[in-house]
Amino acid sequence: NEDFYVMYLNRGHKVLGIYPHTKGGINYTIADVRLILSVGLKIAASSIMLSHNHPSGSLKPSQADIDLTRKIKQAATMMEITLLDHIIVIPEKGEYYSFAEEGVF
Q: Are the C-beta atoms of residues 14 and 47 closer than 8 Å to each other?
């Protein structure tokens, strides 16, 4: 299954918590920008990191992944929360794709 997690951090990048946002199906999961940010606001997070897996084994982000990341970044910026990265992982292979490292946002 595809799962989506959000890590919330304070100003010193200390982890405040990790939120298992959604557990999806075989091909996709749905992330809700409002829920992601509402948790961040409630715990006074200064920054967030997003992560989800690709059960397909492909590290390439879909257009939906890219659009969602940009949407979350824009909304978070309005709330003065910094999106540090969005990471796609394939735990079975020990591989990852970092949006920040690839300059996607």
A: no
Has residue 91 got a pLDDT over 90? no
Comparing CA positions, the residue from 88, 102, 98 lying closest to residue 2 is 88
Q: At 19, which helix (H) or strand (E)?
A: strand 15-23
Residue 43 contacts residue 26 (beta carbons within 8 Å): no
Average pLDDT over residues 68-81: 97
What secondary structure letter does DSSP report for 102?
H
Q: What percent of the chain shows pLDDT beyond 70? A: 100
Rounded to an integer, what distance in angstroms lies between the CA atom of residue 30 and that of residue 68?
10
